[in-house]
User: What shape does this take?
Amino acid sequence: MGANLTAFLKAEKTPFKFVEKSSTHHASDAARATGIPLALIAKSIVFTGSNNSLLIAVVRADHMVSRHKLATCAGLRQIEVAPDTVAEKATGFPTGGIPPVGHHRKLPVFVDTMVAHMESVWCGGGTRNRLVQLSTADIIRLTDAFVCDIAVTDSRIPERS
Assistant: This one.
């Protein structure tokens, strides 16, 4: 799977950098494994909409997706996190390694405004064993992303000033 991401990024002439790590499923574990601050990692989460549509939300890893905000932005009544098998089939990547770009199927991508204002982010690198650094401008360009306020603070993560 990871080779497909590399080929996609090269074909799109998109600068990228990979970092290898131990296999992780959650961004907080990836941050610990790599030493990259959680606030510099973006997570890509697949959701199912009330009309059985699929969409991807990209938020900073130190935040959570507000399902209400995302549904409103997407014009849907209700959304739920997609089961791992559905997410993997639609994107071509395992959960815990889903990048925001290069998916098997073209899905609508919603990038949180905080992510959009960052120069670059680390994200799922196509496998659970690596992260990829991409510019947020490239993420938005490659996915025709919608940029909206879809994040809420993750109360399980201590705030750092």
Observations:
- The domain at 2-153 is CATH 3.90.960.10 (YbaK protein).
- The chain has six helices and ten strands.
- The helical segments are 2-11, 27-34, 67-74, 84-91, 113-116, 136-143.
- The chain has one domain: 2-153.
